[in-house]
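Task: complex structure prediction.
Instruction: return structure tokens for all chains below.
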Amino acid sequence: MQRLRAVFEKCGRAKYISHLDLNRCMLRTFRRSKLPIWYTEGFNPHPYYSFPLALSLGFESSCEIIDFNITDDNMTHEEIQNRLNEVMPEGMRIVSISEQVRKITAITKAEYSFSLVSEDSTEIYDAVMELLAEPEILVEKRTKKGVKTIDISGDVEIVSCELTSGSVDMVIRLPAGTQTNYNPMLFIDALKKVSAIPFETAKIRRIGIFCGDGKRFH
Amino acid sequence: MQENIKTKIEKHLLEVQKPSRYIGGEVGSIMKDKSKVDVRFAFCFPDTYDIGMSHLGMKILYSLTNQRENYWCERCFAPSEDFEKIMRENDIPLYALESLDPVKNFDFIGFTLQYELCYTNILNMLDLAGIPILAKQRTEKLTQIVVAGGPCVCNPEPLADFFDIFIIGEGEEVNLELIDLYLEMKKQGANRREFLRRASQIEGIYVPEFYGPVYNPNGTILRIETEKGVPETVRKRIIDDMDSVYYPENFVVPFTEIVHDRASVEVLRGCIRGCRFCQAGFIYRPFREKSVEKIYKQTKNLCENTGYDEVSLISLSTSDHSDIDPMLNKLIDYTVDEKINLSLPSLRVDNFSESLVEKIKKVRKSGLTFAPEAGTQRLRDVINKNVTEEEIMNACRVAFEGGYTSVKLYFMMGLPTETDEDIVGIAELAQRIVDLFYSMENRPKGKSVQVSVSCATFVPKPFTPFQFEPQDTRAEIDRKQKLLLSSVKSKKIRVSYHDSNISMLEAVLAKGDRRLCKVIYRAWEMGCKFDSWSEYFDFEKWLEAFEECGVNPEFYANRRIDYDEILPWDILDYLVDKKFFIRENMTAHKEKTTPNCRERCSGCGVNKKVGRECFCKD
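Output:
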């Protein structure tokens, strides 16, 4: 049996597929591909696959991960990739397939890119800088136990922040994985509170998943 | 234009529930190059995506039309309230899901009429599309032809003002004939009226503007006037051979969960039973089956192409297929191997055998549903259900022995000749099933039984022997519902029933004439939509609309119709003779049954019109 990890894109209209729907969607994709995917052996056998990180509805991604097992040891990664890509929905494409090396608990951070769109982008840029200079960035996070206020100032890692004529284009890293998961909307909502002028958030995309040692998970 | 709509939609899509319903791009959806397409058809379902995407007819006609390279059929559904608000606020017109182009630019806007309570949604969708709601206000040019098909067009009169064309019967052939004619006449530069004249000559095409009823002072119809040269009655179209008729090899597979989220394979059309309340049992005659081989191939094709892990067999009564045993054997072998769930709705109690329960046990673990329809044998004979209490009890025994502990029973209330004894009989029958369970030595151990009684209100429908019957008044139905509730003594029996107001409106819209067009229009103007959804249904508004338009709903719902009265749907010929319905109505009142078509031909007239016997004589 091959224990495999696929990295796939979820772009364009596919960003409107919710995480719950993605589950069903991949089940059908595997069935259409007729790949010898491994089924669980319980009372109600079902194909085994899992997603280590959920993606918010409306976000694009170039690095979604799905783990699954293939019972045929002789099948090449390339063949598996091709057969899946033939039957994937529009906007979704397998980028690479490899063996499952690291455990999913190794994931600690995820990187997101997005644009803050406004005619007055300089103002937005200033607001971003102002926010980052604050000693603490308090946001309200919904958890299973209710809403709690947390300080994310130590957790937001700015990778880049560029001012263009109509937008501020940012790349940030946030905690991700089995322990803590911060959504980039937390940061954006905090910015909305301090920004004097309104802006729209566009093109939110997950572009990287990282481990504690700073290396890419995928 | 396209970019425009897509951008506008995407700005707001994350503000609404289940956004993937509004953006297309599903696996199996068919994209074409607009520049190579001659005719564009928007197939509209007048309810939300979740419901409409479950409809088999749409899947068939969508794929069938798209088989033709130069025709492009796209899907369109009613937006939910949250998205409709966004559409109206941002000038997003109703658009089709494949191209995201506005449907107002399409050649055909086709609605399927599956139930009467969706009529206001049709008006709302036309309005959202920016298409004039009244047919007579539409352009003289040859474009924007608004058509409808489906079971409710068997009495299309309440919608006559809103449609250019009704397509009567099965659409697999006539739809393409209609589009072919359109293309031919478009090339010739014909106008709308010229096209409608020619279209009215096609069998199965009913153009309402060429027909006009004249009423008696008492409100009944005196005669129906027709324009010169159009057929006096329009005969429904049927497909001759179920094995050679087109069936899709692929479905559009939605991302979001829909009501029936599975592959579905039609196994037969029509019904041999002749239950006197059942419209489907008459309007889909004659009975025609697909061969086991065909059913198997289509099941396999669909499962492979869609990736669905569940398949459902579709028909009015699957166990009436003459090869049911070999069919199930073959399908179960395939589905078990491929780890696919097979679901078998529409089984009857009278041929619910141990071998059948053994088979379905392999595929289904939830409860079983039976439809005795009435609580006493006398009333079951009146409605010609042809099911005995012994058969019901036997089916339940077999089910309990097979390990099932819950059964659901469908009944109707307000049936012709019904007395309080029949209502109490429903509770008593349910109680005897509970008692049966506890009397069985080999019942499932350590479990309690659950009998669910679901009680609908009888709605008299066109093209049935009960089309002449009055519906019980709402007060009477409410009283009977209370009687039923107080007759149930066991906690093992759960009773649910329908809102009697909804059933009354359904009866009015089912049996109405053209005077209802303005009522529907007014109700829609007052904000009525999604009338089949209890959270939206506003009966007060409907009553107000009736009042304002001077139309008495009781005239349609609660009046007994004379056998010789001209009915609004008499212009349509569904192959079954009106004389047969009259004969069956009289037999019902004599509390006598009529055998099923396979046992003995009851002379409904279909065989004569089709030109062959429905069943081979042995």
